[in-house]
Amino acid sequence: MHDFILKEIDSPNMERELNDISFDSSYVHKACKKFKYKNIKIFDLSIAQANILKQTALSVGADCATHRETITGKIEKTDCILGGSVSQLVKISEKLVLQPFGLKKLGVSIAEFLDITKIHKPKIAGILNITKNSFSDGGEFFEFEKSIQHLNEMIKDGADIIDIGAESTKPFSKAVPDDEQLKVLIPVLEYIQENKIDIPISIDTRSSVVAEKCLKLGASIINDVSGFDYDEKMPEIIADYGAKIIIQHSKDTPENMQRNPVYKNLMDEIYLSLKNKVDLAISKGIKRENIIVDPGIGFGKTREDNFEILNRIEELYGLECPVMLGISRKSLLNMPEEDNFTKDIFTVALNTTAVCKHVDFLRVHNVKLNKMLLELLINKGGFNA
Questions:
Q1: Which of 18, 99, 183, 227 is most buried by a 10 A CB count?
Q2: Rounded Cα distance, 89 and 298, in Å
Q3: Which CATH superfamily is domain 123-379 in?
Q4: pTM above 0.85, yes or no
Q5: Interval 177-206: pLDDT, tens
Q6: Cα dist from 352 to 9, 119, 274, 357, 372, whole Å
């Protein structure tokens, strides 16, 4: 008798794995769903809903975890964790459509959730800081000539978007008045218009006044690190101009966000906060396809929090919006004394994880290095896109 050889398969391409063992090729596409597994958290179900969901899951060989008092009825609401293969979850969604207590809507929601697809090649947003106190390159590109030189350099290096900011939001920084932001932003935007530079321009600002002026001058994206918390007029401005909005999660303001940030459940809190912001944006007339979300690395998070976000970033895809990640040169690298190029190298190393997890946008200082990363992982076949 020979020894058995066992190996775990950790591959996103189950179709290839099945073909490798000469599985029935006519059925392989459908069979893939039986070998892909998901754990889905569903919030605030009634006891009746939770009990029916659990029984439905068990009926197809899957499972559903609920509050321990769900069976006794001593509680009114419970969160649930539904787990199974994609094939099982599809069957659950189909069965729920026939159930009472509002479960038809849940069945539809699960089906839609399972149908979420991701683009596989991230876009690169190059950072242009025209501030005197940015955490990484404060003052380096503050002068107009230097900012234009760096703008053109990032475009040459292959940036898909240029994200321009005139207000540092590093920890403990204070707000910059609107007129001071516009004083340096307007000349750069006028240069872009006059030279017919055809690249999407994002403006990193929390101010609706700054946002509106920049949108009039040709910007098409606003990057609000406060996620609408700083200026309640921001959603209205974005909707009026049909612009794109990057909604970032931030715990408190830059002045206070790094003073002992604590979370009960980090990813749940980020997810629910961003969902509320997305719902608010849509209610104000912003189209879902114009919304990008950002978990806010370094904005009210510990170093451990930041790495947890990176490792669990795929959980945010359930928001059905593109996801931006900004790791570049931030404190999670733990390199306060190193030069920026060294920080850029380690940023690229961490962004490898983000690319493999199909993040949609990478916000970076060094465009050239990160474009090289994409070339290595995707275009040369090193990564299964």
A1: 227
A2: 35
A3: Dihydropteroate synthase-like (3.20.20.20)
A4: yes
A5: 999 999 999 999 999 999 999 999 999 999
A6: 20, 16, 24, 9, 11
* Residue 5 neighbours by CB under 8 Å, 6+ apart: none
Tokens 């006028």 correspond to what residue? 190
Q: Which letter does DSSP use for residue 206 in this model?
A: S
The fold of 36-114 is: Ribosomal Protein S8; Chain: A, domain 1 (3.30.1370)
> Tens of pLDDT along 252-274?
776 676 777 889 999 999 999 99
Q: Enumerate residues 6+ apart whose C-beta is below 8 A from 188.
A: 128, 130, 144, 147, 148, 151, 164
The dihedral sign for the CA sequence 274, 278, 280, 284: positive
pLDDT (tens digit, 9 = 90+) per residue, 242-253? 999 999 999 877
- Residues 234 and 222: their CA atoms lie apart, in Å, by 9
| Partners of 40 in beta bridges | 82
